[in-house]
Amino acid sequence: MITGPSSGIGLVIAKTLAADGFHVVAAGRSEARVTAVVDEIVSDGGSAEFLHLDLASLESARRAGETFIASRRPLDLLVNNAGIGISQRGKTEDGFEVHFGINHLGHFLLTKLLLDAMSPNARVVQVASSVHFSAKGVPFDRLRRGTSLIGYREYAVSKLANVLFVRELARRWPDLATYAVHPGLVDTPLIPAWSKPFLRGRLLTPSQGADTPLWCATSDEVVGETGFYYAHRTRLDPSEPAQDDRLAAELWERSIEWCELAGH
Ligand SMILES: NC(=O)c1ccc[n+]([C@@H]2O[C@H](COP(=O)([O-])OP(=O)(O)OC[C@H]3O[C@@H](n4cnc5c(N)ncnc54)[C@H](OP(=O)(O)O)[C@@H]3O)[C@@H](O)[C@H]2O)c1
């Protein structure tokens, strides 16, 4: 299953996995955009299906997770790729700041529900970002406030949450293989158009950006590793707050409460 397969890095990941023989569950909020991708995969000889998922709604994330569970199929790979970048503003349906709600909390709920379907060698790849280095911590008291002018701070917090989530997921489910990945600076619609002239020559193509997430998703080289952070096919130290086990545990506990999930 891949979230956000309609564009950018996720589109390349979905098509590559399908070409490698995976049946792809393409989970996205726009039926028209995602179905177009599914149709393309199928016409290329691959196998895929659409699953409705709007990460700005916990109800939608819950429905998506429960729909997959009800199909009683094993899940071999979950790529949490969908995301919004800076210059997006507002709150999710549940009243969370949009970056935190979409990039972290919706994925948290989806993943937590899907753990029941994971096959023995399942992997969870979370597309994070090196921008997490800009976040000093998770401002728990501000997550229900609106977005600041540019949204950079909120984006950084959401990406720190992605790295912490992978760390805590690995601690709680040591048999699962899970990886947080920085894809590089990639030329996709997530990069604001006004900034692209300043970044000319530095932007990777979506295929280049998909390389390390795909490597974590499928390579034998990462077998036996879990909970770590990668870029350029290399395991790297994430920021100091991203290595804070107490912060990771607190984020997990609070996310459970926000999603109203029972258990741990
Ligand atoms: N581009 C970069 O330089 C860069 C750098 C570091 C990390 N990343 C990370 O890479 C990931 C992919 O980003 P990208 O650059 O490929 O951006 P993109 O081309 O804009 O793709 C984002 C994807 O997320 C989906 N999405 C957005 N909001 C959603 C929601 N509420 N529910 C479900 N799906 C939603 C989009 O669907 P729609 O088609 O419906 O909008 C789209 O499929 C993100 O997690 C991003 O943080 C990107």
Features of this protein?
7 helices, alpha/beta, 264 residues, Rossmann fold, five-stranded mixed β-sheet, binds NADP nicotinamide-adenine-dinucleotide phosphate, three-stranded parallel β-sheet
Question: Brief description of this entry?
Answer:
This protein is an alpha/beta fold.
Walkthrough of the structure:
The protein has helices at 8-19, 31-43, 58-70, 98-114, 152-172, 206-218, 245-259; strands at 2-3, 23-28, 47-52, 75-80, 118-127, 177-182, 228-231, 234-236. It has 264 residues and is α/β, with parallel strands linked by helices. The strands form two sheets. It has a five-stranded mixed beta sheet with strand order 4-5-6-7-8, with helices on both faces. Strands 1-2-3 form a three-stranded parallel beta sheet, sandwiched between helices. Residues 3-4, 6-10, 28-30, 33, 53-56, 81-84, 102, 127, 129, 182-183, 185-186, 188-191 line the site of NADP nicotinamide-adenine-dinucleotide phosphate.
What's the helix and strand layout?
Blueprint: E1 2-3, H1 8-19, E2 23-28, H2 31-43, E3 47-52, H3 58-70, E4 75-80, H4 98-114, E5 118-127, H5 152-172, E6 177-182, H6 206-218, E7 228-231, E8 234-236, H7 245-259
Parallel strand pairs: 1-2, 2-3, 4-5, 5-6, 6-7
Antiparallel strand pairs: 7-8
Helix pairs in contact: 1-6, 3-4, 4-5, 5-7
The protein binds NADP nicotinamide-adenine-dinucleotide phosphate (NAP).
The site of NADP nicotinamide-adenine-dinucleotide phosphate (NAP) has 30 residues, from helix 1.
